[in-house]
Amino acid sequence: MFNIESVSEQHSEKIQAIIDSKTKPLGALGELESLAMQLAKIQFSTADYSAANALAKSAVKLTLTAPHLTIFAGDHGVARAGVSIASSDVTRQMVNNFARGGGAINAISRQLGWRLSIVDAGILEPVVSTQVKDQRLGKTTHAINQHEAMSSTQVDLGFAFAKAHIDELHSKGCNLVAFGEMGIGNTTIASAIMAAVMGVPAAETVGRGTGISAQALIKKQQVIEQALALHQDKLTDPKSILRCLGGFEVVQLTAAMLAAAEHKMLIVVDGFICSAAAMLAIQTNANVKDYMVFAHCSGEQGHEKMLQWLDVKPLLNLGLRLGEGTGAALALPIIQAAVSFFNDMASFSDAEVTNVT
In which pathway is this protein known to take part (predicted)? Predict the structure, then answer.
């Protein structure tokens, strides 16, 4: 379903030469240089011979157009097991808050220049608003410790919905996407996915989410252990893991990342739940990782282990554990700074500065 090209190293030396020619010591801009390299390799493909010639003359520009952040929302049957501080009603309430512009992600997106969309991937009761896009796969998933979360048909429909959403963004010129999520109980889902993918016990993946009690933490771990035992023979591939353990929003997050990579968009991965989706996307097609920037390490205890397993370095570590895409949103100025130095910073020869590197 997704034809994703691996990012070529063909122009790496030319790109590095441009970065090294800037008026700075070698490597002095740290991770900004790595970001510029990643984006340049994505945007200057092997097939683009005009770009290759321009690279040789240091006459290329990186572009960021119409940055777009999508929040996918879904409800979870497992929430009834007491694994969260809130009931599933809060999912709808928060989606309504996003639609009215009152969430943290709304405030940050307005400040930083993200275009924002809200997708109902399957919450208990729809929010009637022109600001919410209907991509519902159902009202809620089944409790993962009792049944498969959803059907294969629902997984496939979620992939199709997400692909169409990204296709639409791409058609409007977007080349940078980020994703957030909302769904009471979804740290339980992400912890279960992490345990299934990494082959580790639930105790290594479970955290306090939005702030549950010690008793609820034990319950959360037990629920995940039950789910892993119930589905152990079926957790053989990404779609099966999504069917058995996933959430409607996680299905669409996973597919949206794959679709974005197919269009050679830069993908900004948010926190724990989005990283669980990223794990499944990478297992589906390893080339998708070339297009991913991991925004931050969240306060959820399993996230750091997840990032280590993925062998990625997050841009930020602010102790965030809100979700909604807030960490991904905060990465935009850093990405813009990487583009700006690559495009606009003078070279030693242009500035007539002695190159002592």
Answer: Nucleoside biosynthesis; alpha-ribazole biosynthesis; alpha-ribazole from 5,6-dimethylbenzimidazole: step 1/2
Task: With respect to residue 287, please indicate whether it lies within any of the assigned structural domains.
Answer: yes
pLDDT tens for residues 268-291?
A: 999 999 999 999 999 999 999 999
User: Starting at the edge strand that comes first in sequence, how are the strands of the sheet with 132-134 ordered?
Assistant: 132-134, 115-122, 68-74, 176-182, 266-269, 292-294
Where would I find the H helices in the chain? Answer: 12-20, 31-43, 49-56, 89-100, 104-112, 152-171, 186-198, 214-231, 238-245, 248-262, 272-284, 301-310, 326-330, 332-344, 348-351
Q: Rounded to 5 degrees, what are φ and ψ at 91?
A: -60, -50
How many Å apart are CA 130 and CA 147, to the nearest integer?
A: 34
Q: What's the total number of domains in the chain?
A: 2
pTM here is: 0.95
Give the tokens for residue 315. Answer: 């841009």
Type of residue at 298: S
186 and 58 within one domain: no
Among all residues, which ones are annotated catalytic?
A: 324
Name the residue with tokens 């800037």.
22
Phi, psi of 29 (to 5 degrees): -95, 10
Whether pLDDT at 214 is above 90: no
Average pLDDT over residues 55-82: 89
Identify the sign of the CA torsion 146, 121, 39, 295.
negative
DSSP string, 1-51: ----PPPP-TTHHHHHHHHHTBSS-TTTTTHHHHHHHHHHHHHS-TT-HHH
Q: What is the CATH number of the domain that holds 307?
A: 3.40.50.10210
* Non-local CB neighbours of 8 within 8 Å, separated by 6+ positions: 41, 45, 46
Closest CA to 99 of 75, 73, 76, 122: 73
Return the sign of the alpha-carbon dihedral for residues 249, 165, 281, 339: negative
